[in-house]
Amino acid sequence: MGMKFDTSEKGLQTLFKPYQAALMEHIWELNNPERAGITSGPAYEFLKDHPDSKSRAAVIFFLNDMVEEGVLECEERTGKGGYHRVYYPKMNRKQFAHHVVETIADKLNEVFPEA
Known about the structure:
Distance between the termini: 27 Å
CATH topology: Arc Repressor Mutant, subunit A
Largest sheet: 2 strands, antiparallel
CATH superfamily: Winged helix-like DNA-binding domain superfamily/Winged helix DNA-binding domain
Radius of gyration: 15 Å
Strand order of the largest sheet: 1-2
Helix content: 40-55%
Low-confidence stretches: none
Shape: globular
Number of strands: 2
Number of domains: 1
Mean pLDDT: 91
Number of helices: 4
């Protein structure tokens, strides 16, 4: 996947689409101070009234991309209808900020080693 950095945006929207930024903020809020976690159903419901809302599949793809990126972690649980992934932050917002800065700096150093 990989993050995309858009210098024309502000806040988390420099890295995420508006609905994705809202969902990440929501997940961080849910997990302070407890690890409440979220499944795709409540994540989709949270975004249902968001002006930039997307399909449930788009929400699931984003959550799974964040797991691959190392921002979220998940565990599988059984429940009504089969298995469900419960997503938790792997890093808090401050740790995420450090992760982003390091990732971007490393990439810039790779692209422009002479700088």
